[in-house]
Design goal:
It is a single chain. This protein is 24% helix and 31% strand. With 373 residues, it is of the alpha+beta class. The chain has 2 domains: 175 residues, P-loop containing nucleotide triphosphate hydrolases (Rossmann fold, 3-Layer(aba) Sandwich), CATH 3.40.50.300; 117 residues, no CATH class. Strands 3, 7, 8, 9, 10, 11 and 12 form a 7-stranded mixed beta sheet that branches. A hairpin with a 2-residue loop joins strand 4 and strand 5.
Amino acid sequence: MALEVRIKKKLNRFLLDVAFEAGDGVFSLLGASGCGKSMTLKCIAGIEKPDEGRIVLDGRVLYDSEREIDLPPRKRRVGYMFQDYALFPNMTVLQNVMAGMKKPENGRPDGDGGDGRPKRLFLRKDRRRSEAAALEKAEDILRRFHIYELRDIYPAKLSGGQKQRVAMARLIAQEADVLLLDEPFSALDSHLKWQLEQEMKQTLEGIGRPVVFVSHDRDEVYHLAHRICCISSGRSQKTMPVKAFFENPGTAEGAVLSGCKNVAAASPEGSHALRVREWGITLNVRREIGAEISAAGIRAHAFSRVRRASDDNVIPVLDPFVLEDPFEWTISFRAAEGGGTLQWKVPKAVMKDAEIPPELYLDSDAVMLLSRS
């Protein structure tokens, strides 16, 4: 099963222009707040209409501007989990979950029961069986999400974590062809988020349907997603496997979104060196520099105090400023007089006291080669 999205929509501040394909497994749209991630989900669900483009789910055309196809949300078979969970306040937990399920069939289309009794009796029996089966299924899902004991409680009395479990249970109960998750952890504190991330990962593993997970949090994406596509100011970038993306995002915008603290414009000096004027240094790199490379990135943890055989770059440490975090040191410094600052992070287990060396060392493979778009 696959979801294909290629759409454009004019928004107030920019043109939303996204294109990606999501297969089975968790596909993530990573981007800053306001970049168009949620609008993309709403267009897939049919809540919003693109200006042009095409959305296809497992061969079914949900939207096609040229063919004037625009299926209403109820016909798209798309499950949507909103940021605020959007639980029905006048329904209990059980009723909320059952609201997402397919309605019981009305009964046999024609004929009687074969013994001369009126068809109406069999319609009522079939409906009762269907309702009983739906109730049993809903209760099984509640047990799976550890909220069975809350089945008669209304949303106003639920905690944030309980609301998220109910919303996820309702989503799974829908049996939709694709699941859309819009910032599902944004309302949770860090400890609860960690716990629910594990539960959601277990739920989504092997689900056999496309899952599109929207987030601005790189850690959430790394924990849950298999493939990733960055969105910057409405424009989507290349889709990549998650681990490959964090090793080298490929673009300056992607590097920033991935959490890289040191990103700056750069120009090639030969095939294996980059001049970074903002930092006042030239960086040696092992890979050949392509014509599209216009920026460099260095992870804050990539610097080393002790030079190794593979360290091709010696970085002076000038004007250091130290911030002490609970478990690591964060040091900002300049590599040249008047240059821009770089950030170095080192665990306290590695460096117990903030003893700043006169220079740091960097493996040439640790320099990310980035383009601007």
